[in-house]
Amino acid sequence: MELRHLRTFRAVARTLNFTHAAAELHYAQSSVTEQIQALEAELGSKLFERGRRLRLTGAGERLVGYADQVLELVEEARAAVDEERGEPEGDLTIGALETLCAQRIPALFGEYRTRWPRVRVTLREGSRGELYQAVQQSEMDVCFTFGDAPADPALSSAKLGSEPLVVIVPPGHPLSGKEELRPGDLDGVGFLATPPGCGFREMLDRIDGPVIEAEVGSLAALARCVAAGQGCGLVPALVEHAGAVAVPLAGATTDVTMTWRRRDERKPSVAALLATAYALSSTDSSSSGSSKVKAGAIDS
């Protein structure tokens, strides 16, 4: 039973889509199909029902847990060898929210690749829930989000700093001329919001007064809709405003959080990324005067 077949099986089992699994693994779709067929032939059982929608068979569902255990054990063995050698190399997958991918991660990405060229880095974008799930399932090494990480004893996290929140409003809106807003200024004001489960939706829901009139799937799309006069929005100050007017919301900030699997802290590639992120965070703090956590301040 080849490890690459198990990795491919796990990707297909998670996405239930050969095309998506192929894109994630950087394989041709035909290669994914061939690997699954080879695994099925070796096991003598069908792992997927191929109808209008792909689904796992009973045998496939049982194999998922074993595939996870085998691949996690392989990663632990590789980490042990890497720790002895000390030089970061191999693959590292980083994930981040759309806004952080555009604004914060490029500096980290560039610095890390310059210092550790033997590590092949993959950067993936996703929603907060998708990113945490990918880290929990060992499909991603480290992710960067806003807000608190989930309470999971298998995970570690660190706050790398904070970002002020602003209310973006259409040009000419009654709030556009204010220097700063307080929650009371938002009573009855129509807002666009990201879907439930998003950190910014949770922040908006905690403010009494705003009226949520519509939902928009991403912060970038939300900003464009606000600029077009469709309502107001609550976003981090670093989001491109797309022509909307940004007005600070008094005392409102959100943390930038880095999350990884606790057992991976000894892997040289992961340890090097954590150290690089801490170093850049400290540099940002000293140059901007904003509040940052000290290196090593870790929340479980």
Automatic annotation (TrEMBL):
Region span, Disordered: 281-300
Keyword DNA-binding included in the entry's annotation: yes
Does the record carry Transcription regulation as a key word?
yes
Pfam family, any one: HTH_1
Question: Which CDD domains does the UniProt record give?
Answer: PBP2_LTTR_substrate
Q: Which UniProt keywords apply?
A: DNA-binding, Transcription, Transcription regulation
Q: Which residues form the HTH lysR-type domain?
A: 1-57
Query: Which branch of life, at top level?
Result: Bacteria
Family (UniProt): Belongs to the LysR transcriptional regulatory family.
This chain's protein is named: LysR family transcriptional regulator
The organism of origin for this protein: Amycolatopsis plumensis
